[in-house]
Specification:
This protein is α+β, with helices and mostly antiparallel strands. It folds into 3 domains: about 230 residues, 4-Layer Sandwich (Glutamine Phosphoribosylpyrophosphate, subunit 1, domain 1); about 210 residues, HUPs (Rossmann fold, 3-Layer(aba) Sandwich), CATH 3.40.50.620; about 100 residues, no CATH class. Helices cover about 40% and strands about 15% of the residues. The chain is built from 25 helices and 17 strands. α13 packs across α20 and α16 runs parallel beside α20. The protein starts with a strand and ends with a helix.
């Protein structure tokens, strides 16, 4: 896990790439890669690459980046790469390349990427199993190649002013370079944050900075010609009606993903709560890996001795499977002390991620660089109540003629009456609930569309809503998917998991130089499950040594952090605010004050 940067002055009129900008971008990502940093600029100052290294595979300096290699045809220093992430099948890919005579001088996955690109070009991205973003400079073709993993586990942001392309792993790193984020705010990014509690891709808070799409490659040549390809689209797997009779070996699929996610030259631990996802991963880890398994649990002083306390069950699971366990409890005073750093490390505003920040700190203090997380279990295995609520709302209200028009009138009349008493979402039930996109916004939304002018500039709210068009986009994304559960999976994975959970895992882990791997968010596992998606209970029954009954039969509660209470006690919430609304205001103010 690392941080990458690339600057490409592709237009003839573009000013030369400045080493000061490249170094500033690279330095802003220091915590992503404390084990080393490198940079390179070509002699003509038209392209530059930067890298911050967190050494996980091949710890030697031979694997440092940006890495350069001559072409197999003899062109000196033709390929240079800066790469962030892990390729779990790199050993198999290396063996395949070696069988055709390709030589290697390191044990790194980075060198495999160069040789695979030399052989297959942009098509190489579809052969990779892992989480990654990468930039490869081809000196002969004078082109820069970018790629991002299938589910968007790792972020990659691009700023293009029409003359120079700027790329980095963080929005704040691009801002540190001094030339991006100057055009003005992106209304869709700001409105999207208030709607969902995270900024929907491809938007950011800045009009000139966008995320490269997941499962996407982009090649830009000297002069500005570009070519974009999509090598993975999860909707394709979801479009086919699920085969209820399809037989899948769920246990082997999960073990296979676990074995791949343990590929590392450093120890790998596991985040352990009392939920089915992390407990199942812990159980399978003891089968997939020999030697000690280290587990980490975060608890809260406010929950000690209550039903919300996950510590006792997590510790019981640790004892059950014989892991080396570390528990740490935090209280509001720890949150208060860490709040400035949390807001600084948060690359884009989010109402989540605080728990990941603290449990990552526990693992890092325990000496680890890599941990496995159960993130994605609810999205992949249908664990949320949205999987029942959204189809029911869409089917019931969608069948009522004129419900949307009547609902709009109902909302306009009732909002002033109910907003101070109950959640404003109830006012929009008839108006939005008749489609999957509308029902999902009702379920996941933080502020409703008609509330945006009260929390941000009204003109920006209006233009942001029009540019984002979330309901239209969500309805289009699920329109070709026949299965109701598949529709909700697509929404949860594309909007909640990618925009919030995965992004939070990235910044919160990197704040402590910790790589968080997600075995349940894996393209091979996903493809294997697609014919007949399994349930969370099915998943929990796969370990050879069964989970304790107290875990399997425990009612779902979610992993809760008392942020609402902490923010309210800190004076950050004023007036009647529902859920995390007060925290959202505080986070947005902090992210836009600079």
């Amino acid at each position: 896990m690392c941080g990458i940067a690339a600057l490409f002055a592709y237009h003839a009129d573009a000013p030369p790439v400045a080493i000061s900008e490249l170094l500033a971008v690279n330095h802003a990502m220091l915590r992503r890669g404390p084990d080393g940093g490198g940079h390179w600029i070509d002699e003509a100052s038209r392209v530059g690459l930067g890298h911050r290294r967190l050494a996980i595979i091949d710890l030697s300096t031979d694997a440092a980046q940006p890495m350069v290699r001559d072409s197999l045809g003899g062109e000196a220093e033709r390929f240079r790469i800066t790469y962030n992430g892990e390729i779990y099948n790199f050993q198999a890919l290396r063996a395949e390349l070696e069988s055709s005579g390709v030589p290697f001088t390191t044990q790194s996955d980075t060198e495999v990427l160069i040789r695979l690109y030399e052989r297959d070009g942009a098509e190489m991205a579809g052969k990779l199993r892992g989480m990654f973003t990468l930039a490869i400079w081809d000196a002969k073709a004078e082109s820069l190649f970018l790629a991002r993993d299938p589910f968007g586990i790792k972020p990659l942001y691009v700023a293009d002013d029409g003359r120079t392309l700027r790329v980095a792993s963080q929005v704040k790193a691009l801002l540190a370079g001094g030339h991006a984020g100057k055009v003005g705010p992106d209304p869709a990014g700001h409105a999207g944050f208030y709607l969902f509690g995270s900024v929907p891709e491809p938007h950011t808070l800045y009009a000139d900075i966008h995320a490269l799409g997941p499962g996407t490659t982009l090649t830009i040549e000297k002069g500005g010609h570009r070519h974009e390809t999509t090598f993975f689209n999860m909707r394709d797997a979801l479009m086919a009606a699920p085969d209820k009779a399809a037989e899948i070996d769920l246990r082997e699929l999960l073990l296979d993903s676990m074995r791949h996610h343990f590929v590392a030259d450093v120890p790998v631990g596991v985040f352990l709560s009392a939920g089915l996802d992390s407990t199942t991963l812990t159980a399978l880890a003891t089968e997939a890996q020999t030697g000690d398994i280290r587990t980490f649990t975060l608890g809260f002083e406010e929950f000690d001795g209550t039903a919300k306390d996950e510590v006792p069950l997590a510790e019981a699971v640790s004892e059950h499977y014989g892991t080396r366990h570390l528990t740490e409890r935090i209280a509001k005073l720890h949150f208060d002390d860490a709040l400035p750093d949390i807001l600084h490390a948060m690359d884009q505003p989010s109402v989540d991620g605080v728990n990941t920040y603290f449990v990552s700190r526990v693992a890092a203090h325990g000496g680890l660089k890599v941990v496995l997380s159960g993130l994605g279990g609810d999205e992949v295995f249908g664990g949320y109540d949205t999987f029942a609520q959204v189809p029911r709302l869409a089917a019931t209200l969608g069948a009522v003629p004129g419900a949307s028009a009547v609902g709009k009138l109902f909302r306009q009349v009732t909002v002033p009456l109910i907003s101070s008493r109950i959640s404003p979402k109830y006012a929009g039930l008839l108006e939005l609930g008749g489609s999957y996109g509308g029902a999902y916004l009702l379920r996941r939304g933080m502020f409703m569309p008609w509330e945006l002018p009260s929390v941000m500039d009204p003109d920006m709210a209006r233009s942001g809503w029009e540019a984002l068009q979330p309901i239209t986009r969500m309805n289009a994304e699920v329109g070709d998917i026949s299965d109701p559960q598949g529709k909700v999976r697509a929404l949860e994975m594309a909007w909640y998991m990618r925009n919030q959970l995965l992004r939070d895992a990235d910044w919160a882990g990197m704040a402590h130089s910790l790589e968080i791997r997600v075995p349940l968010v894996d393209p091979v596992l996903f493809a294997g499950l697609a014919p007949a998606f399994a349930s969370k209970r099915d998943m929990a029954l796969t370990p050879a040594k069964s989970l304790p009954d107290a875990i399997v039969n425990r009612a779902k509660s979610g992993f809760f952090v008392p942020v609402e209470r902490w923010v309210r006690d800190s004076g950050g919430q004023s007036g009647p605010e529902y859920g995390l609304r007060g925290w959202a205001r505080k986070v947005h103010a902090a992210q836009t004050s600079g």
